[in-house]
Amino acid sequence: MDERNLLRSVFDLFIAGTETTSTTICWFVLYMLNYPQVQKKIFDEIEAHIGTERVPSIQDRPKLVYLSAAIKETQRLSSITPQSVMRFCSKTHTIRNYTIPEGSLIAPNLDSVLLDKKIWGSDADVFNPDRFIDTNGQLKKPEEFIPYGVGRRVCLGESMAKTELFLYLSSLIQRFLLLPVHPDQPHQWTIFME
């Protein structure tokens, strides 16, 4: 790899890491404004396991199951990266009688999985963190949850992003009650899926 390619790779990592994390935070705030009962449940969980006297730490993550589920649901539903990183086909492949020639650009569509009603249920277009919690109250890790991609080419910053989101959002909900500017005029918004 020459210096030019190295600089491009570092730039891509920086942009991908900051843009996706900040966009996830924006969507999370929007969902908290539109689902105050979820925000309350997260705050109650934080208050029960951490309190309000100290800052949440990464060691608290296993205790804050509902917050983790809400972060996962935000990533699943908000289409932060509807397409995974584009790839080039290294050799000609045939998949289901369709030939993909060598050198073709491939853009995997993550939304086709993250918003699929066959996987997530008839309410796949509704914000529902409970879909990530099992009957024992533990966090589910469904293989169809792929906002960071899959396989060997999974996002390099996945671990860092999960840590940043947990620390930032747990601290945010611990310290602030998020309220709409005009609570008497609730915004109705939907997500279009076909």
From TrEMBL:
Annotated Pfam families: p450 (PF00067)
Transmembrane helix recorded as keyword: yes
GO cellular component: cytoplasm
UniProt keyword terms in alphabetical order: Heme, Iron, Membrane, Metal-binding, Transmembrane, Transmembrane helix
Entry's Gene Ontology BP terms: organic acid metabolic process; xenobiotic metabolic process
GO molecular function: heme binding; iron ion binding; oxidoreductase activity, acting on paired donors, with incorporation or reduction of molecular oxygen, reduced flavin or flavoprotein as one donor, and incorporation of one atom of oxygen
InterPro entries, sorted: Cyt_P450, Cyt_P450_E_grp-I, Cyt_P450_sf, Cytochrome_P450_fam2
Binding site for heme: C155
Membrane spanning stretches: 13-33
Domain of life the protein comes from: Eukaryota
Cofactor: heme
Matches recorded under PANTHER family: CYTOCHROME P450 508A4-RELATED, CYTOCHROME P450 FAMILY
Family statement: Belongs to the cytochrome P450 family.
Protein name according to UniProt: Cytochrome P450 2J1
UniProt source species: Biomphalaria pfeifferi
